[in-house]
Amino acid sequence: PLVLGIETSCDETGIGIVRGRTLLSNTIASSMEEHARYGGVVPEVAARAHLEALVPALTSAVAEAGITLDDLDAIAVTSGPGLSGALMVGVGAAKALAVALDKPIYAVNHLVGHVGADILDESGTPFEYPTIALLVSGGHTSLLLVRDLVGDVELLGETIDDAAGEAFDKVARLLGLAYPGGPEIDRLAALGDPKAIRFPRGLTLPKDMAKHRYDFSFSGLKTSVARWVEKQEDLGNEVPVADVAASFREAVADVLLTKAIAACVDYNVPRLLLGGGVVANARVRSLATERAAAAGVALRIPPLSLCTDNGAMIAELGAQLIMAGHAPSTLDFSADSTLPVTEIQVR
Length: 347
Ligand code: ATP
Ligand code: MG
Ligand code: FE
Prior knowledge:
Elements: E1 2-7, E2 12-19, E3 22-30, H1 32-35, H2 43-65, E4 74-80, H3 84-101, E5 105-109, H4 110-120, E6 131-136, E7 141-148, E8 152-158, H5 164-174, H6 181-189, H7 206-212, H8 219-234, H9 241-266, E9 271-275, H10 282-295, E10 298-300, H11 304-307, H12 311-323, E11 345-346
Parallel strand pairs: 1-4, 4-5, 6-9, 9-10
Antiparallel strand pairs: 1-2, 2-3, 5-11, 6-7, 7-8
Helix pairs in contact: 2-3, 4-12, 5-6, 5-8, 5-9, 6-9, 9-10
Bound molecules: adenosine-5'-triphosphate, magnesium ion and fe (iii) ion (FE).
Protein name: tRNA N6-adenosine threonylcarbamoyltransferase
Subcellular location: Cytoplasm
Organism: Mycetocola miduiensis
């Protein structure tokens, strides 16, 4: 089926078009720069930016795919989880298109969409299921057991405070680096010693593992970095920014991969898929490669354009639902900022 996907859950306005498993276009407009001076995504600003970016993104995605809107078999849209006001822009646009074009609509889960991105990655054969998926972005840090992309997705664990990308952004801010901080820390970390400072690995002590085996916590790590930096300043020492960045990055990557590989081993699932903007991180990638190889786990990391928020992954999840014979959503669904990952499609 020929499906158009609309993604507006955070700061990317994404319109993607797929035909079956083939990616035809994937237009992304980001309002990241507008949030820079606030040091994080501002919901009102994001929603307004989606309103402005949506029609131009739609026009260029359709042109690039070489189709007309009439050719479409269905519209797919992210209905949650995400920022309410931002989601509403995409949901409203998708409903308007569906009604005007008289096409079926599929309201889908953003996180499951990230997993669906793997199908569009042409660098190899997509994963069979079950697979473990680790989704790490500015808004999410989630570990999923995907038994069936369109039928059975289980949340094994998630962050109990800050998301991993959020931690990168906050630590970057306290080091005086620009937003978004992830890329800045990554760049500096390459010049530092990851063993210089031993920062805490959240929720990995035996007592925490009993209750939070697959959950994450990054706010303690952030506080620990802040305390360490303050102490150096109090002592009149120059802060070794590159060492702090490298040691912090190492702590985040270590926790992410320790828990993801533990899930693969515990559930006897020798496949790990990564998604989300933090996957751009060089240490997350290299440690994933090392640990997966050591554990005999196959690793898939889609290209970054499919890892960060985009419309194509939403279109693909819609296409998969159609191919599996799922009925479309009724038009009375609404955006749900806290949509659970078990709800793959909202009917
Ligand atoms: P959502 O959470 O809804 O999926 P988002 O917009 O918060 O969306 P993404 O756009 O996928 O998330 O990713 C942005 C985040 O990824 C930011 O927090 C950014 O700092 C982080 N990031 C980007 N590049 C890197 C990097 N090289 N290392 C670490 N973090 C990075
Ligand atoms: Mg984003
Ligand atoms: Fe996302």
